[in-house]
Structure formats: structure tokens, C-alpha cells
Amino acid sequence: MAYEPNPDEMDDPAKLRTLIQNASRLGRDDLVLRCQMRLAKLAAPESDDELEHEFWQAVHMAEELRTAENGRTTRLSRTRQKHKRDGAKKCVADLATRSDFTEGFRILVDGGHPELTFESILLRHSDQFTAEEAEQVREKLGREGIKLDDPVG
Prior knowledge:
Largest sheet: none
Order of helices and strands: HHHHHHHH
Strand content: under 5%
């Protein structure tokens, strides 16, 4: 039986990126997604605040996907600046409740990680946001026919 690498046990970003290249070449999209998620988890700073941690996972994942697409390091500079000014909660609320979808949303959904969109994060942590904000996000997603996991329902 062939060796199946486990990205969850890897801590070296360079090795994970090599594994992504190899898995992609072999058509192993499932392994690519697992490696990308591990990279985002490694890059996100540890925090006692789950919302803050998920915010950074989303940002790092979108940056990783955009970097792979562009072939050069790409950062979500405006999102990072907004976070610095307003913090994770306000950043998630403002971007998730916009009437249109952000570039980050499209990057994450197209990259196979809709669970990391700010819309999904807001719905998962709806107890930290107003009922109006959560409903606004549900309506926005519904208009586009997008179904994200919503444990609040």
C-alpha cells in the first residue's frame, strides 16, 4: 500500500506547498484542499477568541489561493488594514453584510472553502452579531442561490 501523507501532521509550509504541487499534478484535489487548510491553520495566530482565529484562517486561505493563482505572493491588503482599524468582528460584519460579494468570498468559494467566507463565519458565530446582520447575510446568500452551513438555521 502506498504512503498517504497526512497534512494535519505537517508543520513545514514549504513541504506542504510541495505536497500541494504533487497532489495537484496527480489530480488529488481532496489532498490539495487538506494541505491548503493546514497552511491556513499554521499561518493563523493562536487566539482564545474563536472568531478572531477563524478570521485569520480565512484571510490566510484566501491569500494562499490567490498566491497560487498569481504565481507570486499576494496579500489581502485592504482586509488587513480594515482589521487593524476595526478588529475582526466589525470587519466580518461589514464585509459579510455588504450587498455584493467581496473578492475574498469569490476566492474562497472558487477555491473550495466556502466554510471560511466571512458570511459563513458570521452565521457560525451569530450570537456575536445582531439578528439583522445574520438575516441580511442569509438573504444575500439566498438571492445568489448559495447554501452555506448554517447551524442557527
